[in-house]
# Entry
Amino acid sequence: MSDVAKRNSGRVATPKQTGSPLPGEVMETAMKAVGGRVRLTNTLNTTFEGTLYTVDPTLRLIALNTRSPPPNPSTNPASVPGDYHIIPIASIRDFHVLSLGEKDYLSQTAPTKIDTRLLQNRLEKRVEQLREEKQHKGQGVSEDAQRLYDRLRQVNIPVRWHAGRDGPQMIVHDAVMVSAPFEPANCVAPADKQAVLQLVKRVIEGERKKLGLSAASGGVRKGG
# Structure
């Protein structure tokens, strides 16, 4: 036996020692496993298992969905709520790919496109609603007067507020002017609108009774 053989015969083979994977190795492996099931352990010895949603090579982060996959394989993953964790790659101590994902996983889970025109239309509609609501709020009127005004609108009586010389007034049917305290006796109209005037008086009298408003209970708000 040669001297080299004698020396080697006295040695016992030991496994190669490996430490934590390098961040670059984790990145490379994770990029190929998007959509698959993975298990990882961070430097705090916390273990996560779930579906690898995405990898950001710029920020060096991964997004992991630890929610169990839907029981029906045909279910679109984007329609199922998830439990997502954002994990820095530098904090990963162990990383194992349990199974690879579907080839079309990225297209299945892609965020839905936002219709900006629809959002703009909704915004404009809401602004118009707020503007209209403001126009129908009497400035400086009592709560009872506002209740009467709102009630007239509810029964489809055309009415709007008008800033009169002696205080807020209701203009009904674009013909009858109603001043505080907004009772039938406070209704006036031009000579050629007397039929409308009588109709408005009856409506106001009836709605005041339904609201339980006593005489002179509606008017201009006193104080600040």
About this structure: The radius of gyration is 38 Å. Residues 116-135 form the longest helix (20 residues).
